Predict the structure.
Amino acid sequence: MRFFKCLPIFGAKIRNKGVLDMAINKESYTVEGMSCNHCKMAVEKEVKALPGMVSAIVDLAAKTLTVEYDGEKTNPAAIKIAVEEAGFTVA
């Protein structure tokens, strides 16, 4: 029974680091030069470090980076620079 007391009430808003308070942008980029899981992790780490970044997920097979971020705190140019700092290029 104790488990059920921890569950949120249906329809309740769950706040996660202010995510509900910001305008979220979602974009995808083609990233060239990635060939292994280490490459994937390097790109994700650099991009996730940007302010306002909610998520950064690399699909290694498709060579894409999908990001969700607060447009008031970061922008596409900063994302591209972060990818380049990881050693890769955005097509």
Notes: The CA atoms of residues 25 and 67 lie 8 Å apart. The domain at 12-90 is CATH 3.30.70.100 (Alpha-Beta Plaits).
